[in-house]
Amino acid sequence: MNKNELRAKYKALRSKLEDDQIDDLSLDISNHLLQLDIWEKSFYHIFLSIQKQKEINTEFILHILQGKDKNIVVSKSDFKDNSLEHMLLTDNTILKVNQWGIPEPVDGIPIPESKIDVVFVPLLAFDQLGNRVGYGKGFYDKFLSKCRTETIKIGLSFFSAEEEIEDVLPTDIALDFCVTPQKIYDFSKK
Predict the structure, then answer these.
(1) Domain boundaries, given as residue ranges, for the chain
(2) CATH number for the domain running over 3-186
(3) Mean pLDDT: which of 25-34, 45-54, 90-99 is highest?
């Protein structure tokens, strides 16, 4: 399937999920993440869930990161150039939901991409090769292309991998892992 077909398919599948299912599946994903050898790093970038899109509830992962006393980085979107500005999440960070339903920091301490060790990547679908389909604006591909090559990219998905995404572009950045409620996909050994 191509990206547009996959977007439609997985938006429809997500729309059928109830809130308690989302929480249960999100907790399973968080528990699987604990099996990965990523917890000795310092800076972890995480997306804050868009509830109306029925995204994975990342609060469970936030609690893990806070419990391990890690530096947590969140983004603010710039829809003029489809870029992300990254800020340290602290006790004083004020979050506000923007017009697209994305919780974002109002302001804060900027963190350059070069400092980020691990990125938890939102997605709608992914394939057996670690390619992903997002919402189609390219925010994360731009962001990930600026990270160090050793930055670990971890997709989070309620659903299992598709065989192949047909229309992958050279600018698409592949995942190192994708974690679902059922299993961990490891693409890092390609």
Answers:
(1) 3-186
(2) 3.40.50.10420
(3) 25-34
